[in-house]
Model the fold of this input.
Amino acid sequence: MENKTVRQFKKGSLEMVLLCLIAQKETYGYELLTTLNDKAGSVLGWAREGTVYPILYRLQEQGLLKTRMAPSPANGGMKKYYSLTPQGEEALGQLTSFWEDFSRCVDGFVQEYKEASR
Done:
């Protein structure tokens, strides 16, 4: 069982990961869940509807995502497709720029720790 700090870190990263996936192409919730689990399930943890959909709703409320409804050929119902708004594209640019600086900074501390531990 992982500790609370690791869970919180993963949860915080998930927002940016979802924005990255949606920026690549218009997509719907189940496809996001499948992609997350296929590409990152072993690291981020297995994505669940109860985690992903609240984030999508929050991003939409913040004006970072727009949605459209379209018929689903599989079951005759409707699917909600997500895409980035211009504000979402700008926010993602800021997040990814911050992430690059953040990860370099943290990597430096981790490397120093490992070298000092030898």
In short: The mean pLDDT is 91. The helical segments are 4-24, 29-44, 49-61, 86-117. The CA atoms of residues 28 and 81 lie 4 Å apart.
